[in-house]
Amino acid sequence: MLIAGAGGHALELLDLLLNQQQVDNLVFFDNVNPITLFEGKYPVLKTEKEILEQFKKGPHFTLGTGNPKHRKFFFDWFTKLGGMHFPVKGEGVVYSNFTENSDADIFNLCFIGAKTKIGKGALINTGAQLHHEVQIGDFSEVNPGAVVLGKAQIGNFTSIGANATILPKVKIGDHVVVGAGSVVTRDVPNGVTVIGVPAKIV
């Protein structure tokens, strides 16, 4: 399997895959940094030609970066080259039977409530909570420890900071950044950054 990225998020992803014994033919991709081995063991690919050769051995890839724009870029590129996205499901996840999950990564110890909808390529990071009827857009990230309460809606390409809280029924637009530890009490328009308690646009 090919992991897109070779930084800190990829390291956590590697740990998860090792625990699940899903490490057959495991390689990474990073064409920015000079490393050739990840953690001194796993090959790091650098070119599109190498990606194509890897997909001949096995088509699966997963997203080893948390940044919404980077996740979208790798998802589209690798899919175009014939890859198939492998969504990660961590350990200790409480996962409702009444949820819609379209190709999202869900890391360890998350809570996914009833009738939630999680978009393509989204990342629900370690310990995050999505309560009943929450909607998460495509390629958005909910960072560790964040809590999204009932019927809140998160747009596409939006980042919810670590330990932030989104109150019930709040609607957050596309391309929004919510600062770590913020408490969002009101709707947030597209393309802004909000921080604080209560969160305000900066």
Automatic annotation (TrEMBL):
Superkingdom field: Bacteria
Swiss-Prot/TrEMBL keywords: Acyltransferase, Repeat, Transferase
Amino acids binding substrate: G66
Residues the UniProt record annotates as site (Increases basicity of active site His): E133
List of catalytic residues: H132 (proton acceptor)
Database matches in InterPro entries: AcTrfase_PglD-like, Hexapep, Hexapep_transf_CS, PglD_N, Trans_hexapeptide_repeat, Trimer_LpxA-like_sf
Domain PglD N-terminal, residue spans: 2-76
Molecular-function GO terms, alphabetical: acyltransferase activity
Family: Belongs to the transferase hexapeptide repeat family.
Classification via PANTHER family: ACETYLTRANSFERASE, UDP-N-ACETYLBACILLOSAMINE N-ACETYLTRANSFERASE
Full protein name: Capsular polysaccharide related hexapeptide transferase family protein
Source species of the chain: Indibacter alkaliphilus (strain CCUG 57479 / KCTC 22604 / LW1)
Lineage, highest ranks first: Bacteria, Pseudomonadati, Bacteroidota, Cytophagia, Cytophagales
